[in-house]
Design brief:
This protein is α/β, with parallel strands linked by helices. Strands 1-10-9-8 form a four-stranded mixed beta sheet. A four-stranded parallel beta sheet has the order 7-3-2-11, with helices on one face. A three-stranded antiparallel beta sheet has the order 4-6-5.
Length: about 190
């Protein structure tokens, strides 16, 4: 069985959530594929949104209609302005979030978004049929067709070094996707 979408986003981290929602808000039939529905927008061990670099990025995403800032406002547990002893050029807002509440709120917002379907699957292969068409073969041998291509999770090609050994490794104790890792770079979007 093949499912057809205008846009397919692979990965449900911060960028994947923003990309999927933006696409759906533009009226495009969008699918977001994640390996674990319970890990949508999973924050790292430091659940901070903001700081000098990320704070600037979050404000830009917010200005473009993104949801990271809104979700942070809803579930933040501490809000601070950093570097106030220095000049205003380096003042930076930062919020500490409740990690679980952030995931749950982001999932609630995404599930209520029209034109957006969230799929739990591992993308095992990307098949380029045309310059603007990619087909993702999921591990369960079902295909998702995306007319305008796919965005890939940053950890799909991850690698970690333990002592003297380098192993394929994603984030948060999950293996990198070996099926995608073994493909030539030109086949992977």
């Amino acid at each position: 069985m093949q499912e057809n979408y205008d846009v397919v986003v692979v990965g449900a981290g911060h960028a994947g959530c923003e990309a999927a929602r933006a696409s759906a808000r533009m009226g495009l039939k969008t699918a977001m594929v994640t390996m674990n529905l319970d890990r949508i927008a999973q924050m790292s061990c430091n659940p901070a949104v903001g700081g000098i670099a990320k704070g600037h990025l979050v404000r830009e995403v917010d200005a473009l209609g993104g949801i990271m800032g809104e979700v942070t406002d809803a579930v933040g547990i501490q809000f601070r302005l950093l570097n106030t002893s220095r000049g205003p050029a380096v003042w930076s807002p930062r919020a500490q979030c409740d990690k679980q509440a952030y995931r749950l709120k982001m999932r609630e917002v995404l599930e209520s978004q029209p034109n957006l379907k969230i799929k739990q699957a591992e993308v095992a292969e990307l098949i380029l049929e045309e310059p603007s068409l990619a087909v993702g073969r999921r591990s369960l041998a079902r295909a998702i067709r995306g007319r305008d291509g796919m965005a890939r999770n940053v950890f799909d090609l991850g690698q970690s070094v333990f002592a003297c050994a380098a192993v394929p490794w994603g984030s948060l104790l999950r293996w990198a996707k070996e099926e995608i890792r073994s493909k030539p770079k030109k086949e992977v979007i």
